[in-house]
Amino acid sequence: MDVARAAGVSQKTVSRVINGDPHVRPAVRERVQHAIVALGYRPNRAARNLVLGRSLTIGVLSVGSTDYGPSSLMVAAEHAIRSARYAMSVINTFEDESETITGALHDLVGQGVDGIVVNEPVGSFSLDRGTIGDLPVLSLSGPYGISTNEVVADADQGAGARGATEHLLGLGHRTVHHLAGPVGWRSSALRLEGWRGALAAAGAAQPPVQHGDWTAQSGYALGARLAADPAVTAVFVANDQMAIGLLRALAEAGRDVPGDVSVVGFDDVPEAAYLSRALTTVRQDLAHLAMFGVGLLIDAISNPRRQDRRENVPVELVVRETTAAAPPGR
Fold this sequence. Notes:
Blueprint: H1 2-7, H2 11-18, H3 26-39, H4 45-52, E1 57-63, H5 68-83, E2 87-93, H6 98-110, E3 115-119, H7 129-132, E4 137-139, E5 150-155, H8 157-170, E6 177-180, H9 186-202, E7 210-211, H10 216-227, E8 234-237, H11 240-252, E9 262-267, E10 280-283, H12 286-302, E11 309-313, E12 316-318
Parallel strand pairs: 1-2, 1-3, 3-4, 4-5, 5-11, 6-7, 6-8, 8-9, 9-10
Antiparallel strand pairs: 10-12
Helix pairs in contact: 2-4, 5-12, 8-9, 10-11
Domain HTH lacI-type: 1-52
GO molecular function, one term: DNA-binding transcription factor activity
Pfam family, one: Peripla_BP_3
């Protein structure tokens, strides 16, 4: 404002000069530049953004988790956002209460961000669409319906779970047990639904589901119960860390993998290919997913008239050494 006053021009004209707009008259440009030097003014991000009428900031709402999926998505999303020359305003939620999530969204809207990335796989929440209006929102964990301009980019987790289960059934296993993720996580529910769908389509029995907490420790504890049951010949695990725990439990119980029990994980963490028995798993390219989603969000910011869109990014079954034909007679 001081520069504009000293040069006798509008703030918008100052911003045009700062941003190198060629359509500013030379005499006006000279006055503005002289005022900048005289006042010792250093152009800042806010002044540059006046021309665009945007903050060039994207808000990010993310569950405060070190689990592989959410943390990998956050790293990739940050890279994509900064590569697009946007700043970030991040709020981590460490509780899955709807009031906490809703309050965080209110905070981001109040900061005047151009769009919001929601990486919140835990729980559910409700928010009046009028609060956000047509502010573009990217969800990396399924639709929330919190904006009239919502973009959803998600790995096709249901299809991945179905493919994993069908792979095991195709090897001759009569049924497939499931170590699921925590109750309340969207990814847990989608993978559970895919597993159930595959069993139902094959007319196979549906064993009781056991829920872990994504850690290898929980996979080990629950795996000890499965390892003690000789009828268990195939297990689909909702993530690779729990699958690693299960493999340890099976080894300690003297159950050979894949001779006695076949195991499939989900995620394809970097360690999966380097276990003593390389883990068969479902690969989801989280880096690609985040970059693809952020690209859709920036497009929605630039083209606000577009309406809700949903894109499912395909996943891939990676067959390695932990799956084989069912034991004879079982």
